[in-house]
């Protein structure tokens, strides 16, 4: 409230300093949300991101009684001049057993190009139960001009996959990563 | 909106007032809260017509199925720019303008606490919008990925992209400076005896809104900065190819975006809480509960952002949390609606234009609130997501909500600001044409959405034709009736019947103790509050 002008000016200065600090703090908070969400998704296994390479393969009992359908989807990010498709659209698998399938990709440009496939699993909560021991998505793939190749994925479904999940979709999006086309 | 000569007359009346300087430099250099309020309000009126013209382009294209008037890319630019202009150019500056004019007069302060920054925060706006609107003439056109700027789509914007980001930064800076100023004014410049719980509701809602602005505008600035570096500097905040995640943007954006929708409605609640008691000739029912309800809405707005993204693939627990938290907002909002109705209950009501707009606000905003509750239900939302039902919902809360409240405020305080009564008959015509127009415009969109018509698409299937035609007719009716408003405002500024100091029989508050129009400098000595 208005007292004398001098104390008001001081009060204004103090309040403005705090509010500017709050503004700067909230700007930083926006950026902090990124690591915060990354950690949250890692802990909870949300977001359909599969884990990295499975290094240690523990033997687990194959659950012959259960069949899960695995669907494969391939898509291209914009500005990626590739041909990209799964060799088979779907497979029936038993949890615990390893399977291998292939994706076909071809560079349609007349120059060498590097691509990176980014996997995503749906439903999101199945992602942590989708284990890959070999995948072309682990590395960047270099394609010579007009080169086409078959690229393998070796995976298994963890028998701990929740019982209500009967279909798992593995989707790859191919990104061109030389000259960082977005 | 006092012109130089009027304020000057009063300067002579009061003898202690030098009055405003003359000419264009008055408006450029001004640090006077009344001048800056006027500038904000006129700027917002201009942007309202700019954004409205874009809406009419959209509706004209949607009059018939197929593509008639514009190509799809321009259509998308129109939907994107319409939203950006209306949100950041029309609704928000209008509320800031009202705060500038009214907050000092309502709390008995001589001016805003930081007058020079006040000048700055206004004059950034014309530059920001020149920048934004100029993108329409750049190669590749303006932004066309929707005002929500979702990557990766928005990263395909052409040359316009950095201009849009810079414009958003400038609008954000302007809003933050305005908010800091309003908080400093309210907390430090209240007249002796004006305790927090004696403040008029409009001041309360703005205090809370200003805190919301400071909390979320920097987050928007951060998120668009990340878009900028993703596009030009090779970072991968939202680029999956580099380990980022596009859904991350949606989380950050809506952390800003949901409080933002309350930034656009809380001051409206304040305005309505001022107008209804005046014309019901009863004090506001449940003042304290209004204050607490406003604060609860502000708090809840921070924990419901993901209801905008129910379909991105959240776990069930997340869907349930955001669903229930969202529904919880209906409780404090319901408190407000009940309080407004209780204020009117057995009041000696009269129906001047501001009151008509206020009553229409209560009814139509509540319809928008109910469709919001429908959208809050996660399982139902999968059906409604990205359909015209969403468009109908947020236009009901923003047009007969926020915009009607601004119009009510303009009619209510215009006699105070200018010293002239507006043309009541014209005001009534404006009200009825707007209210009928807005319902013909947006109500059929509910049905279109429920039937599955997607939003942001320039073409549609044949079975949607009738409702779209209806909607377009309503749009042109609503749009053109706003010319009556502009005409009435200009006419009132230029002259008209002399307004009394109190203007309205039932008016209550410090601003009504001042002359109409108020002197250029008011409350240089603080009034005593009982």
From TrEMBL, chain A:
Q: What is its main location?
A: membrane
Give one Pfam hit by family name: CtaG_Cox11
Q: Which UniProt keywords apply?
A: Copper, Membrane, Signal-anchor, Transmembrane, Transmembrane helix
Which molecular function terms from Gene Ontology are attached?
Answer: copper ion binding
List the GO cellular component terms: plasma membrane
* Claim: Metal-binding is one of the keywords in the record: no
Under the heading InterPro entries, the entry gives: CtaG/Cox11_dom_sf, Cyt_c_oxidase_assmbl_CtaG
- Report the membrane topology from the UniProt record: Single-pass type II membrane protein
Q: Which NCBIfam families match?
A: PRK05089.1
Q: Which protein, by its recorded name, is this? A: Cytochrome c oxidase assembly protein CtaG
What species was this sequence derived from?
Candidatus Competibacter denitrificans Run_A_D11
TrEMBL record, chain B:
Tell me the NCBIfam families matching this sequence. Answer: CtaD_CoxA
- How is this protein situated with respect to the membrane? Multi-pass membrane protein
Q: What is this protein called?
A: Cytochrome c oxidase subunit 1
Per the record, the GO terms for biological process are: electron transport coupled proton transport; oxidative phosphorylation; respiratory electron transport chain
* Similarity field: Belongs to the heme-copper respiratory oxidase family.
SUPFAM superfamilies assigned: Cytochrome c oxidase subunit I-like
Q: Name one Pfam family in it.
A: COX1
């Amino acid at each position: 409230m208005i007292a004398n002008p001098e104390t008001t000016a001081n009060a204004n200065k103090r309040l403005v300093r705090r509010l500017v600090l709050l503004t700067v703090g909230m700007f930083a908070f926006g950026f902090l949300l990124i690591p915060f969400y990354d950690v949250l998704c890692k802990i909870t296994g949300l977001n359909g991101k599969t884990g990295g390479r499975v290094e240690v393969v523990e033997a687990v009992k194959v659950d012959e009684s259960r069949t899960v359908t695995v669907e494969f989807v391939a898509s291209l990010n914009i500005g990626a001049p590739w041909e990209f498709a799964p060799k088979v659209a779907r497979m029936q698998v038993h949890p615990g057993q390893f399977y291998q399938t292939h994706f076909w990709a071809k560079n349609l440009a007349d120059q060498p190009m590097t691509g990176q496939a980014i996997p995503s699993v749906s439903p999101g909560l199945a992602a942590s139960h989708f284990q890959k021991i070999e995948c072309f998505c682990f590395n960047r793939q270099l394609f010579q001009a007009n080169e086409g190749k078959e690229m393998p994925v070796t995976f298994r479904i963890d028998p701990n996959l929740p019982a209500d999940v009967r279909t798992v979709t593995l989707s790859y999006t191919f990104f061109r990563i030389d000259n960082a086309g977005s | 909106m006092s012109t130089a000569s009027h304020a000057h007359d009063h300067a002579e009346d009061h003898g202690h007032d030098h009055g405003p300087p003359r000419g264009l430099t008055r408006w450029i250099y001004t640090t006077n809260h009344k001048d800056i309020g006027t500038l904000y309000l006129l700027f917002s009126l201009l942007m309202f017509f700019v954004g409205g013209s874009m809406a009419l382009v959209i509706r004209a294209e949607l009059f018939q199925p197929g593509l008639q008037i514009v190509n799809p890319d321009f259509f998308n630019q129109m939907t994107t720019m319409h939203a950006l202009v209306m949100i950041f150019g029309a609704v928000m500056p209008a509320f800031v303008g009202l705060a500038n004019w009214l907050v000092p007069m309502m709390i008995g302060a001589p001016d805003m606490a930081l007058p020079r920054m006040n000048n700055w925060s206004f004059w950034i706006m014309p530059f920001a919008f020149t920048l934004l609107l100029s993108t329409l003439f750049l190669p590749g056109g303006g932004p066309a990925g929707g005002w929500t700027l979702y990557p990766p789509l928005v990263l395909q914007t052409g040359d316009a992209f950095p201009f849009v980001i810079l414009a958003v930064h400038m609008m954000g800076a302007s809003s933050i400076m305005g908010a800091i100023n309003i908080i400093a004014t309210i907390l430090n410049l209240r007249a002796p005896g004006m305790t927090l719980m004696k403040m008029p509701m409009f001041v309360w809602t703005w205090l809370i809104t200003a805190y919301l602005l400071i909390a979320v505008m920097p987050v928007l600035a951060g998120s668009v900065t990340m878009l900028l570096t993703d596009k030009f500097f090779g970072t991968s905040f939202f680029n999956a190819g580099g380990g980022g995640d596009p859904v991350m943007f949606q989380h950050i954006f809506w952390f800003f975006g949901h409080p933002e929708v309350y930034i656009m409605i809380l001051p409206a609640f304040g305005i309505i809480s001022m107008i209804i008691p005046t014309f019901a000739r009863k004090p506001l029912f449940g003042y304290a509960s209004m204050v607490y309800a406003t604060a609860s809405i502000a708090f809840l707005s921070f924990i419901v952002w993901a209801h905008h993204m129910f379909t991105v693939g959240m776990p069930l627990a997340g869907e349930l949390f955001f669903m229930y938290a969202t529904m919880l907002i209906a409780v404090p909002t319901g408190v407000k609606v009940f309080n407004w109705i209780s204020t009117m209950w057995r009041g000696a009501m009269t129906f001047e234009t501001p009151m008509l707009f206020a009553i229409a606000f209560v009814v139509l905003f509540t319809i928008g609130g109910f469709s919001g509750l429908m959208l809050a239900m996660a399982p139902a939302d999968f059906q409604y997501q990205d359909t015209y039902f969403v468009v109908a919902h947020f236009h009901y809360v923003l047009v007969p909500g926020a915009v009607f409240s601004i119009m009510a405020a303009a009619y209510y305080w215009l006699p105070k600001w200018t010293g002239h009564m507006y043309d009541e008959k014209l005001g009534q015509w404006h009200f009825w044409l707007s209210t009928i127009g807005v319902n013909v415009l947006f109500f059929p969109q509910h049905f279109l959405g429920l039937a599955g018509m997607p939003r942001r698409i320039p073409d549609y299937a044949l079975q949607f034709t009738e409702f779209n035609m209806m909607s377009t007719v309503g749009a042109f009716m609503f749009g053109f009736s706003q010319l009556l408003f502009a005409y009435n405002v200009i006419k009132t500024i230029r002259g008209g019947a002399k307004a009394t100091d109190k203007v309205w029989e039932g008016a209550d508050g410090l601003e009504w103790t001042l002359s109409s129009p108020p002197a250029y400098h008011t409350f240089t000595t603080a009034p005593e509050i009982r």
